[in-house]
Fold:
Amino acid sequence: MLWSRRAFLPLLLAPLAGCGFHPLYAKSERSKEAAELASVKVAPIANRLGQLLEFALRESFNPHNLPVAQRYTLYVTLAVTENDLGILRDATATFGEVIVNAEFSLTENKTGQRVFTSRTSATGSFNIPNDAFAAQVAGDDARDRTVSQLSEEIGTRLIFFLRQSRPG
Structure:
């Protein structure tokens, strides 16, 4: 019975091979999108959170730091909002939230024209313990998670744009 299931599995997957299906989130160094993303230069982003996002984007676009002609420049503007939640009677917060809104645009270097613009946001939450150091570490971790989420989302949206704008 087990051998018949194994023999049947390739028949189920065969239609996917001809339809052009390829996973978006797969880590493939040979994909066309990886080469196109490497040609995107990330402009400096203001503030410490912006620096972290800039480094995360550079690392995800060109992880091996290969020399590639810069075809596009990505400009990102961040707006950070921090809220204290879970306020106790003595006016101390027990829960915090970080909301980071990113507005970004892709500019073609040859023409200087903006070819793609979008917005995204990420939210991170964290507990605020009584210890000040632990509270700082928890807040920093929430900010790091939002940077990771934004980096993934911006990269995904750029891949969609680059796929649509690819000739052929």
Q: What stands out?
A: The longest strand covers residues 72-87.
